[in-house]
Design brief:
- It contains 11 helices and 12 strands.
- The protein is an alpha/beta fold and 375 residues long.
- The chain has a 7-stranded mixed sheet with strand order 1-9-8-5-4-2-3, with helices on both faces. The chain has a 3-stranded antiparallel sheet with strand order 7-6-10, with no helix packed on it. A two-stranded antiparallel ribbon has the order 11-12.
- β6 and β7 form a beta hairpin.
- α2 packs parallel to α8 and α3 packs across α7.
- The chain binds pyridoxal-5'-phosphate.
- Pyridoxal-5'-phosphate binds next to α3 and α4.
Amino acid sequence: MNFIDLQTQYKLIESEINSGIKKILDSGTYIMGSEVAQLEKLLAQYSGVKHCLTCSSGTDALLIPLMAWGITSGDAVFSSPFTFIATSEVVRILGATPVFVDIEPDTFNISPGKLREKIIEVKKEGKLNPKAIIPVDLFGLTADYNEIEKIAKEFGLLVLEDAAQSFGADYKGKKSCSFGDAAATSFYPAKPLGCYGDGGAVFTNNDELFDIMQSIRVHGQGHDKYNNVRVGINGRLDTIQAAVLLAKMKLFDNEIVLRNKAANKYNLQLGEYLTVPQIPNSCQSVWAQYSVLADDEQQRANVQKYLADNKIPTAIYYPKPLHLQEAFKDLNYSTGDFPVSENLASRIFSLPMHPYLKDEEIELICSKIIEYFTQ
Ligand SMILES: *Cc1c(COP(=O)(O)O)cnc(C)c1O
């Protein structure tokens, strides 16, 4: 059994992918071919946002808007400690300071109440300039943007949605990637919409921001190639990856339905034994991960071992919150600073999740978990 199955999906679109790639190989436009613009138009429409700028990874999709905003040393950027390192790594790359805020125990996303308290605390301290918030849409569920956008407005902060795991998700009638001042997603192969290499995209409704980000994506170029008006990066998406994503978009809405069906089946059978994910009203997750909670670390280890012995793969996202990572030790956080994140890190684990999970596979996984708890 696979934790994620990308081969079944490939079989469904094999001829389209192969002919799309062949066309690019024949044409020689490996960089910025017409498929890139075509994809950007499609993704912007899909998310209900004016502009989409594809780029080389989800990490660069986070970095580019922060560079465009001039985030730098002395600036505070508020974010969740319960995420992949990239979310705050980009803040550090620019010399700014990630300020962590604990998460909600039921959604695993940043707590708006604690965010507000933390912003007030940082302002009162007066050492850092509060500039931006990076909420993370963990495991495919959007953060609580109604509350977050209110807080951002109150304190004059920018919002960058880390939608690396949530492209396609719904929040109160709007699509993921449409929140805040800009949003970043990732097309890493294992994400809900993945390509066959690295890729990402930034979304915004702001024309001026879009212009600056376009320039940053290509070495800060001005109106012609060898006129550089700012410092940028080499952040383009390959034409071949754009062709892959165009083919995969045809399957994508149905895949979201299939992921939700799988999650509902898990929820119904496992809710009695493990804490299963709760999706707030008027939200739809894209289930980048299906993650459950054991009672404690020992029980998690036992269940994972029982499943591994039965050839069922599991994974832990994330075993160590960012505030305890060695890379961020100069930020001087310590154990106990974010009790919800730390507690979840010791209890959480993820079960196989992809659109092509068979009913028999879900039944097997659930029956083995039930067997563990009832034997
Ligand atoms: C995957 C991921 C990223 C980074 O995306 P890459 O395409 O791997 O650079 C950023 N944030 C979160 C929450 C992610 O899951």
